[in-house]
């Protein structure tokens, strides 16, 4: 099934012929190869590029085994360049190419060559891969299908598509699967045998039971502040384990480098500074998160929050969790300092939005909870509350924009309404 991925295709097009290696990164099975070899190649051809000026090599295929040797690969590409017109080199699964960094840097020295690569294994998935190209790499990071991409191919009503996405997420292969068991088995299998295997093998992790339990803890706690010390205390008291906070922190970094999770910093809005303690963690795909927990603990508000976070990243926003410190009186009438939380502070250029995610606002208590923190923010940037459902944007008496998830997810400029 073909899903147009225009948001990423346009980002690649914007980088065309910029003199750098375009590095397509992202979690495995999220559609990197399809984006480059199908969608971008089609764009090049429709733009008037002759197919003999597009050099594509799938390095994971048996037909390319000889080309995994660096000199053989370089010479093969060089021999295909027979005139001064622009050539586009597309290399898939470039980690199969020995000394690929040297090959790519050598290709960059050929003036009429534009280079694009993808990679999927533990070596290439690392977030620091761009440094391998000595500042000559330009990353295009892609995510599993956004809800709008998923919905465009799902072929059923919004409510059915939303329930499906909330349960199984947006890995493209799911669109071709016929039943729930097949989808559940697929997600559980690739989590254990692909993603976790990559993380453990790449980082030579010996305490496999501990890191697997750590993943379960993070999956159970999406949207909740936590830190390695708190997690280490849980291991010490419940499992009598010496899994230290230093090791836990390192393993969280490994999971983040493999794009399985994202670590979100907390930002003091009034103090204009970051708070190091108690970060939040979200999963790159909610289906993978659900599979990790055997499709239990599916709290809709938490999953909505995770989906909103991923959507904001896919749109290119920088995202933090907001903190507002206020003075309140306790039961004894004493004044105490309390931290109120804004789900997301999103920035792009000089534009900022404050976003709260709520399953519903049907009670006065819930409205007070969501609105109170927004009232304490001392600036005039737009404040938005996202609720479950299909309601179009409207403003309440405080001037806050309230909109349904359907409108937010299916309109790429929804935050501007």
Automatic annotation (TrEMBL):
<feature type="domain" description="DUF4143">
    <location>
        <begin position="197"/>
        <end position="359"/>
    </location>
</feature>
<dbReference type="Pfam" id="PF13635">
    <property type="entry name" value="DUF4143"/>
</dbReference>
<dbReference type="InterPro" id="IPR027417">
    <property type="entry name" value="P-loop_NTPase"/>
</dbReference>
<dbReference type="InterPro" id="IPR025420">
    <property type="entry name" value="DUF4143"/>
</dbReference>
<feature type="domain" description="AAA">
    <location>
        <begin position="21"/>
        <end position="150"/>
    </location>
</feature>
<protein>
    <recommendedName>
        <fullName>AAA domain-containing protein</fullName>
    </recommendedName>
</protein>
<dbReference type="Pfam" id="PF13173">
    <property type="entry name" value="AAA_14"/>
</dbReference>
<dbReference type="InterPro" id="IPR041682">
    <property type="entry name" value="AAA_14"/>
</dbReference>
